[in-house]
Amino acid sequence: MAAVLSLSPEQHRAPPRPALLWALGVAAVAACAVTAVLASANEELYQPALRVLLVWWVTLPYIFAGIVAWRRRPDSFFGPLMILAGFATQLSMLQWTNQPLFNTIGQLCDLLPAAIFLHIFLAYPTGRLAGRAERVVVVLAYVAALGLQVVALMLGGFDQHHLLTVVRRPAAAEAVQNLQLLLLSALALVGVVLLWRRWQSLPRWQRRVPTQIVIHCFSLTLVMFAALLVAGTFQLPGFEIIRMATFAVMGLAPLAFLAGLLDARLAKAGVGELLVQLRANPAPDLRELLAQALRDPTLSLIYWLPQYGSWADQDGNPATLPEPGSGRQVTLVKQNGEQVAALVYDAGLGEEPELVEAVSAAAAIALENGRLEAELRARLQELHGSRSRVVEAQQNERRRLERDLHDGAQQRLVALALELGLLAEQTDSDPATQTRLKRARGEVAQSLTELRNIAHGLHPAVVSGHGLAVALESLTAATPLDVQLKTDGLPRLPEPLEVAAYYVVSESLTNAVKHAQASRATVEVGVADDTLIVEIVDDGIGGADSERGTGLRGLADRVEALNGRLRIWSPADSGTRVRAELACG
Amino acid sequence: MRVAIAEDSVLLREGVARLLTDASIEVTASCGTADELLVRVADDLPDAVVVDIRLPPTHTDEGMQAALTIRQKYPDVGVLVLSQYVEVGLAMRLLADSAEGVGYLLKDRVSEVKEFIAALRRVADGGSALDPTIVSTMLKRHRSSDPLDSLTPREREVLELMATGASNAGIAESMVITQRAAEKYVSTIFTKLGIPATGSESRRVLAVLLFLRS
Fold it and tell me: A463-583, what's its fold?
């Protein structure tokens, strides 16, 4: 059975203890009861029953949605913030009592919920404030809600049951209070703009309906807030109505948020679809299927290759997990306690770990298969790489030997031949000496010819020195066949490529002469689409086979080591066509 | 005659210098690199240069490039290219549009002192000197309905000599025939191969090469 471990690029946090969550739930209910008691004891309160209901309507959804969110997204601050907002709302209701200390606390917290709500909305969904603008707005909101509140209270503002009055300046207190309300309403409206901007910046595939509803609820709440605070400042008629409407709207936001979480569960229906597809197609494009199921087209799938101790993509190419803070989320898929694969996806608004978990579990067997395939491909690549290195090393060694022969033995022998030639010029008297000199010169000349053939067989120096076109002209001129050579517009290419192409032509012509009894051949070499194409066609008896005879097999090795392809068509009695394609890049 | 040498093997460079000095040829410069040769030639124009095709730093085509440069910049300076291998492809490149004042020989040929000096003098005088292996290689090519098949063995021999840049007198001497007989062979060959008769000896070298390559 597959186990799935969700890993956000940031530090992991342990989920809250259930006891704590239960305690918070009980405390929320208790706080609601206290509020009801306070309201019934307060005779000045306008429509106390409705007020209490509205307070409950705001408090309970936030606290309970917060508890659910905290349990399911321990890494996010969003849940704790929601819980905090609920309790702050309750605290502000302590102003309903005349007991001085509690009244002071209640008055202090009067506008705190407004700032916390703004904070929550702008921190959706990670619980962190994403941008500088968001941070500035939230800090200002706290300053206005708490800081200015303290100032207003010290100036003797509001009713007189609190303990903070230092001087009694009712006019100043009211001015501060009005400033506070206007500032908060302005910040609420700025918050609406920031939310809207956030929505616009989302990629299309992330603009899903549940997210949209949440953001609309937040925006509506903020607009209502602004209206309420302005109404409070200018003591507009209908203030109480607006207050109740605002509370009513505020309670909607957590419900929308819960609906979003529920949607993540509903999305698990897509897992069934995934299972059906996996069953129908045993070798699927797994990344594509997972991307569909997780509704994230940017999803990438990488596999853990234990033998290599590294990550690789589906083709076996090395891959890495994203850096923390890259905005990409990682989910490790484990099987029997060992990591098999990792899903890398956008850490966007709708992060849904349960869905990722369900999808990974559903695809566990396919993932294991995918991993084996990636490992196989990585091995193939490794094999190919080592073959390339062998061919390259051989090539380098041959070139070095040719060079050593050229600069060493060949030069010395030529110098010796020259010395003997000069000696022969000077000793014209003694015929016996002349004869021996002549024989010696013949021996040296023979040695030079043999050495030259050996050196040329080791490495075609003319290819490195003067390019494929010149080398092929010499090669075809020296072939006892009627060869048509076409190398028009052939540029200089990397040496290994030129040498490989040279050997393809040389070996094919040798075969044409030796085995195919050909009388004519055409050799065409050109570059098309960044690929060097070498084609040799003869009119011989055909029947060439790359598996028989080491010549053509060696050619195929040489060409494949350069990531190229060698194909041979050689039906009996209708000539042989050899075609090599080598990527120039 | 005044000659500049470029050859990176000291042993060989000194040997060639001695060979030339013994033949009363003045060696104006004895260089180890192509760049040095170009500088020395510009300073003091010789009648001919003897240049190794593989020279430092990369030992690929520096000598060839120097040879082509000298041919282009100083058409009056004969260029004799020496190499451990002679390549038909390079011969065609060296002789691209004229065989005048150019030679391309296997390095081994320096040991045939008299022939080598003769070839060098020919090149310095605007003639040509192509290594016989080039022509013999090209003659090995089998072609269907080949006009070469209509040549007698003696005529083929003359053709090969002609392609190395030999004069009629040279052909006559090599084949131990009269110059008149040599001339006759030459004109028969031209007729049989359908090559228009050309006056100069180096022009006919190119004509024969182009015919053989076609």
Answer: Heat Shock Protein 90 (3.30.565)
